[in-house]
Specification:
- This protein is an alpha+beta fold and 496 residues long.
- The chain folds into 3 domains: 265 residues, Brix domain (Rossmann fold, 3-Layer(aba) Sandwich); 62 residues; 58 residues, no CATH class.
- It is 41% helix and 17% strand.
- Strands 1, 2, 3, 4, 5, 6, 7, 8, 9, 10 and 11 form an 11-stranded mixed sheet that branches.
- A hairpin with a 4-residue loop joins strand 6 and strand 7.
- The protein is elongated, with a radius of gyration of 51 Å.
- The termini are far apart.
């Protein structure tokens, strides 16, 4: 067989994970509330999120500033297909069920609701296993056989809210929960309930079932084993065990529980988990929470009213489109103005740089002309009678600019710690020095009356460095000693 002569890298094809593809293809949902609803409705939202597990955002953070458009923009990236929105008004609590991305939106009025904690508290033996929420629930629809379009739409919305199952490939060990939706045609109400599914073997009493389990039951309160085997069952309405042909099934697969064998009869037990909802369909809208009303349970409109609503809706849409176009034009105009301003700024910077370069080329040192130099030499010769020296008139001489005196105080110089004089300044504690210092202060107080000289001395002293101040003190000290000596000599001469 010949060798493959094609050059270049072969593109590697990574195998697609079927679990990830199944997860992306499953319907996902957001459950949240809008506006002020109260703590009970917030808890109802949390219970509904637990019901919709695992294909929902359990820890979805909703803030006051978030609008519906924010959730719609995020939904596409997260493969979200449904919204369940709870609101509360003065009339009651409402639930909106939206299909993304183009609707429709079903608005239900919540007549009654019961939280999961209330349902669990009413049960004698609630099932609180957390592993049951790892798999999505089954959907059981009852009495949705009407021919009306709104009933068919309701049925399809609830069915598509959860992933579909393949009866030939489903694993019974993964079926742990079910959601039952029952429609009452006479009252037009829906019962929305959530149950746990459990399979137990048929033909055994509760006592025998407990003996079959791995844990041995407590028999201390019974006088005989027959009392335990034949005792009456105490259970609530939500966990009643009525075995019969209506709930007995033949298992096509082996289930991970004691006594449930393949091809054997077992009974299905349902334990309610909550929440409970009693709903009534109010209206169906086209789009997501906005659009023409396709069905309303209480209001019927004529064709003229419908046409008027359509015209008003078209007007709003056109106004919205015009505003969008105006905004886009304003953004483009501002970008153009910004670019023009930038060009003008750059042009001005270039012009300033060119002017500075021209000034540097023109500006040169103040060189005296040769004619002026010759005139000065001739004038000197006529007045003096002889030629000047060579260094008197330098032809290329440059005058030094006079430095302007700054009135700011001079910077304090750092004193080297190794210098002896600095040690004298910082550490000297001589008594005589202190006396001289006191004398200086006295002389300063005397000198203060001298007027302008005092101000000049103070300004000079402020500009002096610590080293200069110390040297000035030494000079004053010497002068004082000389004055004392002269005074002593004068006194001695007078006495003689």
């Amino acid at each position: 067989m010949g060798k493959n002569r094609k050059k270049g890298k072969k593109k590697k094809t990574c195998p697609i994970d079927p679990v990830e593809e199944q997860f992306k293809g499953a319907p996902h949902s957001f459950v949240f509330h809008r506006g002020h609803v109260g703590k009970n409705v917030k808890q109802l939202v949390a219970d509904t999120r637990l019901l919709m597990e695992p294909f929902t955002a359990k820890n979805l953070q909703v803030r006051k500033k978030n609008v519906l458009k924010d959730f719609v923009n995020v939904a596409g990236m997260l493969h979200v297909t449904h919204f369940m929105i709870f609101t509360k008004t003065d009339v009651g609590v409402y639930m909106r069920l939206c299909r993304l991305p183009r609707g429709p939106t079903l608005t239900f009025k919540v007549h009654n609701y019961c939280l999961a904690k209330d349902v669990i508290s009413s049960l004698r033996k609630p099932n609180l296993e957390q592993m049951q929420f790892m798999h999505h629930p089954l959907v059981v629809m009852n009495n949705f056989s009407g021919e009306e379009n709104h009933i068919k739409l309701m049925s399809s919305m609830f069915q598509n809210l959860f992933p579909s199952i393949n009866i030939h490939k489903v694993k019974l060990n993964d079926v742990k929960r079910c959601v039952m939706v029952n429609y009452h045609s006479d009252s037009h109400l829906l019962d929305f309930r959530h149950f746990n599914i459990k399979v137990v073997p048929v033909g055994m009493s509760r006592g025998v079932k407990k003996l079959v389990q791995s844990r041995v039951p407590n028999l201390g309160k019974y006088g005989d084993i027959s009392e335990y085997m034949t005792r009456a069952g105490y259970s609530s309405e939500s966990e009643v065990e009525l075995d019969g042909p209506m709930n007995e099934v033949v298992l096509p697969q082996h289930i991970r529980s004691r006594g449930n064998i393949k091809s054997a009869k077992s009974a299905v037990r349902l334990t309610e988990l909550g929440p409970r909802l009693t709903l009534e369909l109010v209206k169906i809208e086209e789009g997501i929470c906005e659009g023409p009303v396709l069905y309303h349970a209480f209001i019927t409109r004529t064709q003229a009213e419908l046409a008027q609503q359509a015209a008003l809706r078209d007007k709003k849409q056109k106004l919205k489109e015009a505003r969008r176009q105006q905004q886009a034009a304003n953004v483009a105009r501002k970008e153009e103005e910004k670019g023009q301003h930038k060009e003008r700024s750059l042009e001005g910077i270039r012009r300033i740089l060119q002017e500075e370069k021209g000034d540097e080329a023109v500006e040169e040192p103040n060189m005296p002309d040769s004619d002026e130099g010759d005139d000065d030499v001739e004038y000197f010769k006529q007045e003096v009678g002889q030629m000047p020296d060579k260094d008197s008139f330098i032809p290329g001489g440059v005058k030094r600019k006079k430095q302007q005196k700054s009135h700011s105080p001079a910077k304090m110089k750092k004193i080297d710690s190794s210098n002896k004089l600095s040690k004298l300044v910082t550490d000297r504690k001589d008594v005589k020095f202190n006396k001289v210092k006191n004398m200086d202060s006295k002389t300063d107080s005397v000198v203060k009356g001298k007027g302008q000289n005092d101000k000049n001395n103070q300004s000079k002293r402020a500009n002096m460095t610590p080293m200069q101040k110390m040297m000035e003190r030494k000079k004053k000290k010497k002068k004082m000693k000389e004055k004392k000596k002269t005074l002593k000599m004068r006194k001695g001469g007078k006495k003689k």
